[in-house]
Design goal:
542 residues; alpha/beta; seven-stranded mixed beta sheet; 32% helix; 20% strand
Length: 542
C-alpha cells in the first residue's frame, strides 16, 4: 500500500489504515474467541446437547405435518340442543375458574402446588362451588369441614449432575429441572447426597443381575403402559433403596418436560425422584459416555416432612325432590398442579348438571339430587400417618360415617370424576393429540341390569369411549359409599397426564365435556323414574 506524500494527508491515511487494521484484528480476536467458546461448548459433556440446549434446538424436522381434522363431533342423539348450561364452552369456563385457583398456589411459591387437600386453595375451591350452588338456587348449601391426616410436603429439592474435566472442556454442573420428589421420601442430610450413579435399566430381576447398588444413586427407566398411572416402575424405588441405594431416580419415558407427583416412586427409607423429557434423554446418554471415563455422580438434596393441622371440607347443595330418597352426585375438589382432567373437569361438569337441573321451569325430580364437592380425595383420614400413600377420600368417608340417615335414604351415587381428556399417540417425535378421547373405565358396582342397560344406552347415544371389559369396581372418590351398600356408577380413567404438570386445560376437549354432561343427564333422567328394586339398592355385590 502506498501513502500520499503530503505529511498531513499521509498522517490521516496512515491513521485510517491503522484504525482499519486494528478493527480487523479485534474482530478476528472476537471471532476466534467465539469459535473457541463454541468449540468448548461442543466439547462439554462429550458434545451431548444439554437439556437446555435440546429445548433451544426445537423439534427436529419430520415427515409428519398437521392434519386439519376437528375433534370427534358431538353426537346429540337427534334431540334439540339442551339448555346452554350443558354446553362444553360453558363447562370449560368453570374449569378455567377452578384452574386459576391452582395458579394462585403456584404464584404464592408453593413447591407442592395446586388445590392440595386441606390447604387454603382447596378451601377456596369449595367456596367457589358453594357460591355457584347458591347462584343456581340450590337448597341447603353449606360447607362441612373435617380434619385429615398430615400431608407429606416437600419444600425444596435439587437433583444436579456433577461435571468433571474428563467430560470435556467447558462442562458445567447440570441441574435437572423436571426432577420432582416422590411421596413419602424423607429429607436428605443438609449437605445432601453426593454419590455415583448406577443404571439398572427397567429394574427387573434380570436388569439387576450382577449390579450392586449399595452406596449409589440408582437410575431406572420407567415406561408408561396405558398412561401415567400405570407404568413399569411402581414400587421400584423402595426396593432399590432397601437394597442399599442411597436414592433412586426414575426416568419417565415421556416426550415432555413436565413434573410428576408420583406416589409410587418414593420410599420411607430414602429419597426417590422422577425426571422426564430432555432431562431423561440427557441423563441416559451421559451415563453411556461416562462409563468409559469417570463414573457420573449427582448431588441430591431434599427438604420434606409432614404438614400438620390440615382441614378439608365437603360442599353440599340440594335440589329437593318429591320423596325422601336421594341420588348423590359427587366430584372431588383437590388436585395436584393445574389438575384440569383430575378433577377440574369433574367439578365443572357437576356445576353444569346442578345448573341444568335447577334451571327455571325444570321438572321437580322424584328424588332429591344432592351435589357434593368432596374434599381430601388424595389424602388419609385422621390418625393415618403422612407416609401412607393410599387414596382414602376423606370427604366421602366422612359422609358415610357421620350421616347414616342420608346413607339409608340414598339409592344411587354417580361419581363425576375425570370427565373428558383428549387421547394422544406417542413415538412419532412427540406427544400428538388425536381427534378422539381417552377411554374411561365403566363401573356399575351392583351390576344392576337396569342401571347397566341405561348407562350403556346413554354412552352409546352420545358416543362416549369406553373399554369393552370391566370388573365393575368404581375406582375413584365414590368407592367409600360401597361400605354403606349404595350402588355407585362411575366412568373414569387416570389418563396420560395423571398427577403431572401436563394436566392442563389445553388437553381437555370441549366437545367431550358436553358429551359427558349430556350422557349423565340422560342417564339420571331414566334413573329418576325407576324403582328402588330396579336400581338394586342394597343388593348383594355392592
Amino acid at each position: 500500500m502506498t501513502f500520499a506524500s503530503d505529511p498531513l494527508t499521509g498522517r490521516t491515511h496512515r491513521t485510517l489504515w491503522f484504525s482499519v487494521l486494528a478493527l480487523v484484528l479485534i474482530l478476528f480476536a472476537l471471532a476466534s474467541g467465539q469459535q473457541a467458546l463454541a468449540q468448548a461448548g461442543n466439547d462439554a459433556w462429550f458434545g451431548v446437547p444439554t437439556p437446555a440446549q435440546r429445548q433451544n434446538i426445537g423439534s427436529p424436522p419430520s415427515q409428519y405435518v398437521p392434519v386439519a381434522a376437528a375433534d370427534l363431533s358431538l353426537r346429540t342423539g337427534g334431540e334439540e340442543l339442551p339448555a346452554e348450561m350443558l354446553g362444553g364452552n360453558n363447562i370449560a369456563r368453570y374449569m378455567q375458574d377452578i384452574i386459576a385457583i391452582s395458579q394462585q398456589s403456584k404464584a404464592a411459591g408453593d413447591a407442592l402446588w395446586g388445590r392440595i387437600g386441606g390447604t387454603e386453595w382447596e378451601l377456596m375451591t369449595a367456596q367457589y362451588m358453594a357460591e355457584k350452588f347458591r347462584l343456581f338456587g340450590l337448597a341447603d348449601v353449606r360447607i362441612d369441614r373435617m380434619p385429615r391426616n398430615p400431608q407429606w410436603w416437600p419444600t425444596a429439592w435439587e437433583v444436579t449432575l456433577l461435571a468433571d474435566e474428563s467430560y470435556g472442556s467447558g462442562s458445567r454442573d447440570i441441574p435437572l429441572l423436571t426432577a420432582f420428589p416422590g411421596v413419602p421420601s424423607p429429607s436428605t442430610p443438609e449437605s445432601g447426597i453426593d454419590a455415583e450413579l448406577i443404571y439398572v435399566g427397567a429394574g427387573t430381576p434380570a436388569d439387576l443381575l450382577g449390579r450392586d447398588v449399595t452406596g449409589k444413586i440408582a437410575v431406572y427407566h420407567a415406561i408408561f403402559e396405558s398412561g401415567a398411572y400405570s407404568y413399569t416402575g411402581r414400587g421400584l424405588a423402595d426396593q432399590l433403596i432397601k437394597a442399599g441405594a442411597l436414592a433412586a431416580i426414575a426416568v419417565h419415558d415421556i416426550e415432555a418436560n413436565i413434573q410428576f407427583f408420583n406416589r409410587f416412586v418414593g420410599s420411607e427409607a430414602g429419597p426417590g425422584f422422577t425426571i422426564s423429557g430432555d432431562d431423561g434423554v440427557f441423563l441416559e446418554q451421559i451415563i453411556v459416555h461416562t462409563a468409559e471415563t469417570k463414573p457420573l455422580r449427582a448431588r441430591i438434596k431434599l427438604i420434606s416432612g409432614p404438614r400438620d393441622g390440615l382441614i378439608t371440607q365437603n360442599t353440599y347443595g340440594m335440589i329437593p325432590g318429591q320423596s325422601d330418597e336421594t341420588v348423590i352426585l359427587t366430584a372431588h375438589t383437590d388436585a395436584y398442579f393445574d389438575g384440569a382432567y383430575d378433577n377440574a373437569s369433574g367439578l365443572a361438569t357437576l356445576l353444569a348438571l346442578a345448573k341444568y337441573y335447577s334451571r327455571p321451569g325444570a321438572p321437580t325430580p322424584q328424588r332429591n339430587l344432592l351435589f357434593v364437592g368432596s374434599g381430601g380425595h388424595h389424602a388419609g383420614r385422621p390418625g393415618t400417618p403422612y407416609t401412607n400413600t393410599g387414596l382414602q377420600s376423606v370427604g366421602t368417608a366422612y359422609m358415610v360415617e357421620n350421616y347414616p340417615q342420608l346413607m339409608d335414604d340414598t339409592v344411587l351415587v354417580l361419581n363425576v370424576e375425570h370427565t373428558a381428556l383428549t387421547a394422544v399417540v406417542t413415538g412419532l417425535g412427540g406427544i400428538i393429540n388425536t381427534t378422539t378421547e381417552t377411554a374411561r373405565h365403566l363401573a356399575v358396582s351392583n351390576r344392576s341390569p337396569f342401571l347397566l342397560e341405561n348407562f350403556l344406552a346413554a354412552i352409546d347415544r352420545y358416543g362416549v369411549i369406553v373399554p369393552t371389559m370391566t370388573n365393575h369396581f368404581p375406582g375413584g372418590d365414590a368407592s367409600n359409599f360401597l361400605r354403606a351398600e349404595i350402588p355407585v356408577v362411575n366412568l373414569i380413567s387416570a389418563g396420560f397426564w395423571y398427577h403431572s404438570s401436563g394436566d392442563i386445560l389445553e388437553n381437555i376437549p370441549v366437545q367431550g365435556l358436553e358429551r359427558t354432561a349430556r350422557m349423565f343427564a340422560y342417564f339420571l333422567d331414566r334413573v329418576d323414574s325407576a324403582s328402588r328394586v330396579e336400581i338394586g339398592t342394597g343388593a348383594p355385590g355392592n
